[in-house]
Amino acid sequence: MELKGKVALVTGSATGMGREILLSLAKAGAHVIVNYSRSEDEARQTLEEARSLGAKALLAKANVAVESEVLAMVGQAEREFGRVDILVNNAGTTVFVPFSDLDALTDEIWYRILGVNMMGTFYCSRAAGKLMLANRFGRIVNMASVAGITGMGSSMPYSVSKAGVISLTKTFARALAPHVTVNAVAPGVVDTRWTAGKDAFKAAAAERNLFGRVATAQDVAEVAMSLITNSTFVTGQVVIVDGGLTM
Does residue 77 sit within a domain? Predict the structure, then answer.
């Protein structure tokens, strides 16, 4: 699929995987919306890099866990570009809590992680999905995780939230068919800011897969781009990107 002139919203795109996906879309000719909630300096850097690639780029601050902010962001994109063709639900959060430490899992932790990871995916997909249905075209890619499949990961709330993202992928695929495809990427451990300083954690993950390393943001972006550009008859699917860890 030709991306030139398409409009892409990537949540949490100031840094990490979101940034890599957004810049890949910009390189392919898409107009892009850089979303952030706290990392304004990094978001502005990503915005300028996207513009240097020739893309029309818009900066949109929004906490995806707050529906009113999501609606304002999607409205901003519609006013600027007239539509949203591509949505990548990448914004996410976690805490590192051992699964055995149940008492450490406060309500605040649960609500924050479920709010950003799961409800944020729902709010953004519903808002952007309405524009896609009106235009009879759309691509949605959700950032899931192998944690949502295996019941492992950084914490219990994170694992539960990503299982929810996988379910949202399948249910939105039904809700928005046939003109909008909805798929998910489920990475294992990725070398990003989230895992900075957690060398033992990354080394253990690298030892368990078939490549002897953890994924890079580019590894994940390549799969996301394939789902956006090459998968016209694929929907409701989850592509695992973990180097064979869970095969």
Answer: yes
**Digits of tens for pLDDT over the chain (247 positions)?**
899 999 999 999 999 999 999 999 999 999 999 999 999 999 999 999 999 999 999 999 999 999 999 999 999 999 999 999 999 999 999 999 999 999 999 999 999 999 999 999 999 999 999 999 999 999 999 999 999 999 999 999 999 999 999 999 999 999 999 999 999 999 999 988 777 787 887 888 899 999 999 999 999 999 999 999 998 999 999 999 999 999 8
Active-site residue list: 158
> Of the candidates 193, 183, 239, which has an alpha carbon nearest to the alpha carbon of residue 36?
193
Cα separation, 14 vs 18, whole angstroms: 7
Residue 64 forms part of a structural domain? yes
CA distance 103 to 97: 10
DSSP lists the bridge partners of residue 7 as 31
Q: Which residues pair with 9 in a beta bridge?
A: 33, 87
Q: Where in the sequence is the domain holding 186, given as residue range(s)?
A: 7-239
CA–centroid distance for 145 within its chain: 10
Task: Please answer whether residues 107 and 115 qualify as being in contact, where contact means their C-beta atoms are separated by less than 8 angstroms.
Answer: no
127 in any annotated domain: yes
How many domains does the chain fold into? 1
CATH of residue 89's domain is 3.40.50.720
Whether residue 96 lies inside any domain: the answer is yes
